[in-house]
Amino acid sequence: MVSWLLHAHLHLLGADILWREIIGNAFGLVSVLYAMRRHVGAWPIGMAGNVLLFTVFLGGAFHTPQDKDLYGQAGRQVMFFAAALYGWWRWRQHRRATGQPTAVTPHWASWRTRLGILAIAGVGVAILDPILAALGSFGPLADSWIFMGSLLATVSMARGYTDFWLLWIGVDAVGVPLLLRAGYYPSALLYMVYGAVCLWGFAVWWNAHRQAAVASSEEQLASVPAAVG
């Protein structure tokens, strides 16, 4: 089974495509769908995909058909795995504390937090770009943004910020052309699907946030007569 997973591939439209790239991205898509439902299972499912995709994006090291090393993309899988441990723990704690079936309550990040996210993204890209270029990464500037955007989106998702969907859309917008140029066609196709799912997820979380705000207002209004009495 392990040997098949490492070497099995499809020959499609003149290109060799690894099955582990397809399977790893499928895990990623399922993880996004679980995140949309605010289900804690989003984290372990995503981690399984991270392990597979780590080997895919080190194409030169693992002798994949693409034979290109995207160090930012590969490093992103390590970051995802570590951040997922934090997100998994945080969502489980929230669900236990609230007793609700959903693992997080969506809310907007403050403007101060948003400015901090932008500042961290800018500094991170500026630092990573020359490092990835020196390592020989394919498309280092785009790869740097994808890494930083993914890191910030994952942490924001763990903290329940509705804004994290917008960060993912920004990552997808850069990731699709990069992956197409590098020959990672299943990943590029899935990034397009991710973009559409992220728009849907953003609408779902925004609506959940509005419903929670309305419910909170109604509870406050209902408590006023009792307080006066």
The biggest beta sheet reads: 2 strands, antiparallel
Shape assignment: globular
Percent strand equals under 5%
Secondary-structure element order, as H and E? HEEHHHHHHH
Cα distance spanning the termini: 70 Å
> What is the residue-averaged pLDDT?
82
What is the overall number of helices? 8
- List segments where confidence is low: pLDDT < 50 over at least 5 consecutive residues: none
**What percent of the residues sit in helical stretches (DSSP H or I)?**
over 70%
Helix- and strand-based class?
mainly alpha
Q: Using only CA atoms, what is the Rg?
A: 20 Å
Number of domains: 1
Query: How many extended strands?
Result: 2
Name the strands of the widest sheet in spatial order. Answer: 1-2
What do you see in this structure?
The protein is mainly alpha-helical and about 230 residues long. The protein has one domain. Helices cover about 75% and strands about 5% of the residues. The chain is built from eight helices and two strands; from the N terminus they run αββααααααα. A two-stranded antiparallel sheet has the order 1-2. The N and C termini lie far apart (about 70 Å).
Keywords:
229 residues, mainly alpha, 3% strand, globular
Write the layout of secondary structure elements.
Layout: H1 2-7, E1 9-12, E2 15-18, H2 19-36, H3 42-57, H4 71-98, H5 111-135, H6 140-158, H7 164-182, H8 185-228
Antiparallel strand pairs: 1-2
Helix pairs in contact: 2-3, 2-8, 3-4, 4-6, 5-6, 6-7, 7-8
